[in-house]
Write a structure and sequence with these properties.
The chain is mainly beta and 338 residues long. Helix content is 0%, strand content 48%. The chain is built from no helices and 27 strands. The strands form 7 sheets. It has a 4-stranded antiparallel sheet with strand order 1-27-26-25, with no helix packed on it. Strand 20 and strand 21 form a beta hairpin.
Length: 338
C-alpha cells in the first residue's frame, strides 16, 4: 500500500468518521459538520451543517443510493444526492449513537448506542421505520458489522455475538472474549475468522466456532481501529500509535517494519492513528489521526509488498519455499566456499 494523499485539518476539531458516497469522500467531525471532498484531488467541495452534536457515524446504503449520518445527539439523517446532497428525513432515537451499519441482505440499518442493536428499514427510500431490535448484550455495543447476512457485534460487556437477524437467534457467543470491553471488530473474508480489539490493549483472532487462534499483546493503548485488508491479506491495527500496526493475517506476524511508505513524513513525531476504514469498492484504506488528518492509502501492484532487511552484505541468492515449513539459510564468505 502507498499513500495516495493526505487531507490536513479536515475539520477544526477531531475527525470521527469517513465514508465514500456518489463518487465523493465524506468526513464527519466533532464540530457537527459533514464535509464533502473531491475523491480524486481530496480538495474540499462543500461543508454541510448536519447535527446538533458530533457526527459520530457515516454509512452508505448503496442499493438505495442513500447516505446515513448519525450523532451523539441521538438523530439519524437520511441524505440523497439530487443536484447536491440533501436531507430527506431525520429520525430521533433518544440515545447517543456510536455505530451505524447497513445490511444489504435485509435492507435494514443497524444502529447502536446502548446495549441494544436497533434495526430500521428504509421506507420509500427516504424514511427510517423501526424494524425490531436485538438484545444480546448487557452493556454498550461498540462495534457492529454484517457478513453474509449475519450480524457480528462486540460490547463493553466483553462479549462477541454472531446473530441471525431473521430469527434473532444467537449463532455464536464468546462471553469473555477479552479482559476488558471489546472496542473494535473486523472480519477476514479469506479465512472466515473474526478479529477483535479491546480496551485491554490486545487483539485476538477467532475461528468461526469461537476458538481463539491467535492473541496479539504488547500494544501501547486501547485498540481504536481495526480493519482486514483483503488485497495484501493483512490486519491493520490503530491503537493511538505513531503508525498503523500491520500483521500478516495467516501467521499473525508483525510485518509493520517491512511495509514502507505508510506514514507521511510531515509531523510524524506528533501523529497518533485513531480510526481505520477499508473501502472494498476502491480497494483503499483510510485512517484518521489526532492531527485532524485523513490519510488515504491505495494498492499499487508496482510497489513491493514488504522490504526485508538482510544485513550489511548484499544478497547473492534467493530461494522461494512454497510451504509454510521454516527453512534454514546459510551464507559464508570464507575462501573455501567461494
Amino acid at each position: 500500500m502507498e499513500i495516495r494523499g493526505v487531507i490536513r485539518d479536515a475539520h477544526s476539531v477531531a475527525v470521527l468518521c469517513v465514508a465514500i458516497f456518489n463518487g465523493r469522500l465524506y468526513t464527519g467531525g466533532d464540530d457537527s459538520i459533514i464535509r464533502v471532498w473531491d475523491y480524486d484531488t481530496l480538495k474540499l467541495y462543500k461543508s454541510l451543517p448536519a447535527h446538533n452534536g458530533p457526527v459520530t457515524c457515516l454509512e452508505t446504503g448503496k442499493e438505495c443510493k442513500t447516505l446515513f449520518s448519525a450523532s451523539s445527539d441521538g438523530t439519524i439523517n437520511v441524505w440523497i444526492w439530487n443536484s447536491g446532497l440533501k436531507i430527506v428525513s431525520v429520525t430521533k432515537t433518544l440515545i447517543p449513537i456510536s455505530c451505524l451499519c447497513w445490511s444489504s441482505a435485509r435492507r435494514v440499518l443497524l444502529v447502536t448506542g446502548k446495549e441494544s442493536i436497533l434495526m430500521f428499514s428504509l421506507q420509500d427510500g427516504k424514511k427510517l421505520v423501526p424494524a425490531g431490535k436485538l438484545d444480546h448484550h448487557s452493556d454498550i455495543v461498540t462495534s457492529v458489522m454484517v457478513h453474509e447476512g449475519k450480524i457480528l457485534s462486540g460490547s463493553h460487556d466483553r462479549s462477541i455475538h454472531v446473530v441471525d437477524p431473521a430469527t434473532g437467534r444467537s449463532l455464536l457467543k464468546i462471553p469473555r472474549a477479552h479482559k476488558a470491553g471489546v472496542s473494535a471488530l473486523a472480519y477476514d473474508t479469506d479465512t472466515d475468522t473474526i478479529t477483535s480489539g479491546s480496551y485491554d490493549q490486545r487483539v485476538k483472532v477467532w475461528s468461526k466456532d469461537g476458538v481463539c487462534m491467535h492473541e496479539l499483546k504488547g500494544l501501547s493503548d486501547t485498540v481504536t481501529g481495526l480493519e482486514y485488508n483483503p488485497v495484501t491479506k493483512t490486519i491493520w491495527v490503530a491503537a493511538n500509535s505513531p503508525q498503523p500496526l500491520i500483521f500478516d493475517a495467516a501467521s499473525v506476524i508483525n510485518v509493520t517494519e517491512y511495509v514502507s511508505g505508510v506514514v507521511p513524513a510531515h509531523r510524524a513525531e506528533m501523529r497518533l492513528f485513531q480510526k481505520l476504514y477499508w473501502f472494498q469498492e476502491t480497494q483503499e484504506m483510510m485512517g484518521t489521526t489526532n492531527l485532524r488528518e485523513v490519510i488515504v492509502w491505495r494498492w499499487s501492484p508496482t510497489r513491493p509488498v514488504t522490504t526485508l532487511h538482510v544485513g550489511d552484505l548484499p544478497p547473492e541468492a534467493l530461494c522461494y519455499s512454497p510451504s509454510m515449513v521454516p527453512t534454514l539459510d546459510f551464507t559464508c564468505t570464507c575462501d573455501d566456499c567461494k
